[in-house]
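Students often ask why inverse folding is considered easier than folding. One informal answer: many sequences map to the same fold, so there is more than one right answer. In these notes we will look at a single instance of the problem. The structure comes first.
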């Protein structure tokens, strides 16, 4: 347990303990309409059988949430942890992010018959546990008073699994292997079994990520075929499968109080912000109280902070006990030279307008549009792909130094002059990069960095897009002379709230990929094969091809 009730410093972020004695009932059976059952564990204060309820639905085993459940129950709430279909001893088949549409209704029908259910509840959870809350909005639930959704999007295809059309291989191959390992353990896996599920990625991860064809990478990592992974590979394009995992439209039926939280270095952040926009739109958005909190966190780690916990319990106290109304609006951590929280009325900050910073020859970056000039060459070899360094990933992410990438033939670096005064970027970030590619198939990865006086290129945000004839990530952008196909790559990058300090420089890296975070582009148009082709690209930055990153800049 990262922290407990005993530390005085953490108590400042938590309400006082109401009931130190907690009772636990394990293995409660919830019948499913088509047959089978879901299993659940119930935690409740020994002196209050009908305390307000906090519901958590998880695929990670019921015991995985035990410490959180006890923490909440000691504050005077019941907690019900329900294992989703095919996990934790529940019936059915686990299909990753494709949830059984009948589960939420079955849980609520069962709850309404329990003598210990007081008729008021909130939902709580991070990552997959947050995603299950988006699914619950398929139908209106009168007893649902508040949703605490951390690091979880309502949609999976474009926001993280195939961001920019590129499979996020490193994170999700490792995740499906861990889930497969937990499933093979049977029943409700212990915490020790959960820890053991991490071992294959440590022992065989590098070999699995490098293996071709990618359809066999699951066998290399886990020793067997993983159906969920194979299903994702068989549906590389948007379609009905992914539509069934998109719960964005459910936003209008979420409860009247929603607390969203995310981290700048979390892979789900773009999806969290899309969910925030959906919650704020329409008539239901005007009637709903929505709080958005974005901190300097990697995936899941906001949960272990006083900032998050104090806000989360304020939501519970108000929604389920009639306490003081919690804060609304937006609170974001401004990184870099600021290192402080900022309160906003909405996201993105409405007063910010995109400022283009143009790429120039010689690795220069500036506000002046380029004129006639030669392009910057880039050579991408999928047999030696550009390595990924830090960033918003599930494992090992964060604001890492990208200097190790400098000097590679597949990396082009651009930096502006030393700043005479600090500037802040707060809002959406994007890039438009014109490239002339020898091959028809290529990827463009763009990373924004804070270049300090010591020469470190510290990650701020990034994004990737896959380019192909008739593809969604770019379009034909005229002629550049010579052989090759000219694409205009439109890269949706992660949002940012970052202060570039005086004396620092704004830096941009352009590469042909970031492996193993993203699946490498083989250059052949056949990502299911083993053949690879080295690609020569030219980054165009002239009057006809004004490549640039767009930042929501203001003078600090």
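Output (designed amino acids):
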């Amino acid at each position: 347990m990262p922290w407990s009730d005993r530390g005085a410093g953490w108590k400042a972020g938590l309400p006082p303990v109401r009931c130190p004695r907690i009772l636990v009932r394990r293995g409660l059976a919830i019948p499913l309409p088509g047959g089978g059952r879901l299993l659940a564990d119930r935690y409740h204060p020994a002196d209050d059988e009908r305390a307000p309820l906090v519901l958590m639905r998880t695929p990670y085993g019921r015991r995985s949430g035990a410490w959180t459940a006890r923490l909440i129950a000691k504050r005077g709430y019941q907690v019900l942890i329900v294992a989703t279909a095919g996990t934790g001893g529940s019936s059915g088949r686990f299909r990753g992010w494709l949830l059984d549409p009948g589960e939420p209704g079955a849980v609520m029908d069962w709850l309404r018959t329990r003598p210990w259910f007081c008729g008021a509840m909130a939902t709580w959870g991070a990552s997959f546990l947050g995603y299950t809350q988006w699914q619950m909005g398929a139908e209106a639930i009168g007893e649902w008073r508040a949703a605490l959704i951390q690091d979880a999007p309502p949609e999976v295809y474009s926001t993280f699994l195939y961001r920019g059309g590129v499979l996020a291989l490193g994170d999700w191959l490792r995740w499906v292997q861990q889930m497969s390992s937990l499933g093979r353990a049977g029943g409700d896996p212990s915490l020790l079994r959960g820890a053991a599920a991490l071992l294959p990625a440590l022992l065989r991860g590098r070999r699995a990520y490098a293996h071709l064809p990618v359809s066999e990478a699951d066998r290399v990592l886990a020793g067997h075929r993983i159906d969920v992974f194979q299903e994702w590979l068989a549906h590389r394009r948007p379609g009905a499968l992914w539509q069934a995992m998109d719960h964005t439209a459910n936003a209008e039926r979420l409860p009247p109080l929603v607390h969203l939280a995310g981290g700048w270095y979390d892979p789900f952040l773009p999806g969290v912000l899309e969910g925030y926009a959906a919650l704020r739109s329409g008539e239901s958005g005007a009637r709903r109280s929505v709080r958005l909190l974005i901190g300097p966190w990697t995936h899941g780690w906001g949960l272990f902070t006083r900032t998050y916990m104090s806000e989360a319990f304020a939501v519970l106290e108000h929604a389920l006990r009639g306490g003081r109304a919690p804060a609304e609006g937006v609170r974001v951590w401004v990184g870099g030279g600021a290192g402080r929280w900022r309160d906003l009325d909405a996201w993105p900050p409405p007063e910010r307008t995109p400022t283009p910073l143009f790429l120039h020859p010689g690795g220069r970056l500036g506000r002046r549009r380029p004129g006639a000039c030669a392009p910057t060459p880039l050579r991408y070899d999928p047999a030696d792909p550009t390595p990924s360094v830090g960033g918003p990933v599930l494992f090992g992410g964060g604001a890492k130094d990208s200097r190790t990438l400098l000097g590679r033939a597949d990396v082009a670096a651009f930096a502006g002059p030393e700043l005479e005064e600090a500037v802040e970027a707060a809002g959406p970030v994007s890039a438009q990069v014109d490239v002339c590619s020898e091959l028809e198939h290529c990827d463009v990865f763009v990373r924004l960095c804070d270049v300090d006086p010591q020469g470190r290129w510290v990650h701020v945000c990034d994004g990737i897009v896959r380019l192909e004839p008739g593809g969604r990530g770019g379009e034909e952008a005229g002629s550049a002379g010579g052989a090759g196909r000219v694409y205009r790559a439109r890269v949706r990058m992660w949002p940012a709230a970052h202060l570039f300090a005086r004396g620092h420089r704004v830096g941009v890296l352009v590469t042909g990929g970031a492996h193993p975070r993203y699946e490498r582009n083989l250059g052949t148009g056949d990502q299911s094969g083993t053949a690879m082709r080295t690609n020569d690209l030219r980054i165009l930055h002239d009057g006809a091809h004004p490549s640039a990153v767009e930042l929501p800049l203001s003078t600090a």
